[in-house]
Amino acid sequence: MYDKIDAKIDLKKALVPQLAKLTKTEYVMLMDRPTYLETTDEIKLYEGEWHDWFHRSDIDLNQKVVIPLAVIFFAIGLYYKNLEDKDGSLLDQALFCFRYFLLGCVIWTAVEYQQHRFELHNEHTIPDQITEESIKKFFFSHHVHHMYSN
Predict the structure, then answer these.
(1) Which of 47, 65, 107, 120 could form a disulfide with 142 if both were Cys (CB 3.0 to 4.6 A apart)?
(2) Is 29 helix (H, G, I), strand (E, B) or coil?
(3) In Å, how far are 68, 86, 93, 101, 149 from 77, measured between CA atoms?
(4) Cα 69 → chain centroid
(5) By residue range, what is the domain housing residue 7?
């Protein structure tokens, strides 16, 4: 069956219009078998360059934004804790803030798992008749990550 699906997908052409021609069974099978590509630049989602660029997400950019923001917010928390507790040592205040940082990490992990498991793995919401319009609801939310994991 995978040979038939592979014959329907040409990675040198826009991917979304090709996915819209698959049956629900074929789509789910494609999603359940990740494909590794040397570079994600090989994947073209849409024919138009702007439309294609707009639907991409760059993990490096996400990390370049999120990590500095986490450090900045930790420093802000430490600053406000210092304003509140002038008598405590800076180490005590940093440990106090770090405990809340760890608590935030635990809560974030729990919420992330819930979102990933129950909302992003939404195979039950895939319509029987896939269209380019319906793909936006499930493919870009997470399924592209499973089809082309890099």
Answers:
(1) 120
(2) helix
(3) 14, 14, 9, 10, 36
(4) 18
(5) 2-57+127-147
64 with 52, same domain: the answer is no
Residue partners of 126: CB distance under 8 A and separation at least 6: 24, 27, 28, 134, 138
Same domain for 73 and 50? no
Whether residue 88 has pLDDT greater than 90:
no
Closest by CA to 30, choosing from 2, 4, 66, is: 2
Q: What is the pLDDT of residue 56?
A: 66
**The pTM is what?**
0.56
DSSP category for residue 21: T
Residues 127/138, Cβ–Cβ less than 8 Å: no
